[in-house]
Design a protein that fits this description.
By secondary structure, this protein is mainly α. Helices cover 76% and strands 0% of the residues. The protein has 18 helices and no strands. α5 runs antiparallel to α17 (358-382) and α8 packs across α16 (339-352). The radius of gyration is 21 Å and the shape is globular. The N and C termini lie far apart (45 Å).
Length: 419
């Protein structure tokens, strides 16, 4: 009797949707690391905006336009990668996007022109957004609806460390180097993502589940998605709530550093506290999904956000820049932390019924978020009022409308039907 050779563990079958209580935690955490390239790219250079503005001879507010420029790339990039990944699988888009990201990061690190920097930031986003689209779709490929909500919570635990650590890491770089070093670091992180894709990311979309409809029908497929009530209410509502955070990111440096005179190091800590609240509630969300309906948790989180934004709005209206900084920061904290209850659950509901177009659904959902970020950033510039009131107006308007749409979701929607 011949000795049998020990067999290597098989990779998960792409079409298999996990139904046991066990989740592929290591795989999900790796996906979180891939998505972290986005928050790192947005947040790490924020403490450097004043020094970058000095180097380029412009104001900090003008240099902050590089944030909406980044969001612009995220909007259009995701709309491309979504249908592309539904047609060719999840692996090839990752290679294309991450390579573009590395090249764009090097461009940002070496330029001495602010408009080239803005263009580089847009290209950087066109590459970085592939991680968010592909990872969300890959999770939908493998997991059931309730497991998807838990998986997003686990993934945010990893990627959520990026906005916590990124401003502090950026401030640390500024103590020893100039702002160019931040973009060199981001280029290296993009290269790490290429290595993760090569050695640890497996294909999750089988041939039979790929979208074979002609590419010319992409726009009509996106329109069909927007008309689908199982997608549009959670996706647009969640997009408005998440987009409000990007409005805050666009205004954070001006509000906290310029208005209240907070140093770059302290700004990094304050910014990280908001991200920590976000991550903390995503982990609480894992426990809550075992005890309550996903929709109920989503609605509770939305109400937390809109009430906090309302308090900030009233504070800015009545007190302006004389508002007590801890109160302003507390309102912002609950607005951002509430995302830990809204984003995993809104995403899980929006993707639950989208089998053959999970990539498109993931892309459209992400694009909606960043479209709100761009619109909100422009909205901030329209109001010639004090920064506290300006941020309060933007956050309260977006979160009120987002919460309204969340409450429009059919309360009898049964996610088990998506299994």
């Amino acid at each position: 009797m011949s000795a049998s050779k020990p067999s290597l563990p098989n990779k998960p079958i792409a079409s298999e949707r996990v139904r046991s209580a066990d989740l592929p935690v290591a795989w999900i955490m790796m996906l979180g690391l891939m998505v972290a390239v986005g928050p790192l790219s947005i947040d790490m250079y924020l403490p450097a905006l004043p020094s970058m503005a000095d180097d380029f001879g412009v104001s900090t507010a003008f240099m902050a336009n590089s944030v909406p420029a980044y969001f612009l790339g995220l909007v259009f990039g995701q709309l491309f990668y979504g249908p592309f990944s539904d047609r060719v699988g999840r692996v090839k888009p990752l290679y294309i996007g991450m390579t573009l990201y590395v090249v764009a990061s090097i461009l940002c690190a070496t330029t001495d022109n602010e408009y080239v920097l803005f263009a580089g930031r847009t290209l950087q986003a066109l590459g970085a957004c592939v991680g968010a689209v592909v990872t969300r779709a890959a999770i939908r490929d493998r997991l059931t609806a309730k497991q998807t909500a838990k998986a997003f919570s686990i993934m945010i635990l990893v990627m959520g460390l990026a906005p916590i650590l990124a401003p502090s890491l950026g401030a640390l770089f500024l103590q020893f180097f100039d702002w160019h070093s931040i973009f060199w670091f981001l280029a290296a992180f993009g290269a790490l993502n290429l290595l993760l894709t090569k050695f640890f990311f497996f294909e999750t979309l089988t041939e039979e589940n790929r979208n074979v409809r002609p590419a010319r029908e992409v726009l009509s497929q996106y329109w069909d998605l927007l008309k689908d009530p199982t997608f549009n209410y959670p996706a647009i509502g969640g997009g408005l709530l998440m987009g409000a955070m990007f409005v805050y990111i666009s205004s954070a440096s001006e509000l906290i550093m310029d208005t209240y005179g907070v140093s770059a190091t302290h700004f990094a800590w304050l910014f990280g506290m908001n991200a920590a609240g976000f991550v903390g509630l995503t982990q609480l969300n894992q426990w809550l999904t075992n005890r309550f309906r996903i929709l109920s948790i989503l609605r509770f989180g939305a109400m937390m956000q809109v009430i906090s934004a309302g308090v900030l709005f009233v504070t800015g209206l009545l007190l302006g820049t004389d508002a007590w900084l801890p109160l302003v920061l507390a309102c912002i904290f609950f607005c951002i932390a509430g995302l830990g209850l809204t984003q995993p659950n809104a995403s899980a509901i929006a993707l639950a019924f989208q089998k053959r177009r999970a990539g498109m659904a993931s892309a459209l959902q992400g694009s909606l978020m960043f479209s709100v970020g761009i619109f909100g950033g422009l909205l901030l510039n329209l109001f010639p009022v004090n920064p506290v009131f300006k941020v309060g107006i933007a956050l309260f308007s977006l979160m009120s409308f987002g919460s309204f749409l969340i409450w429009k979701i059919d309360r009898n929607l049964n996610l088990d039907d998506a299994e």
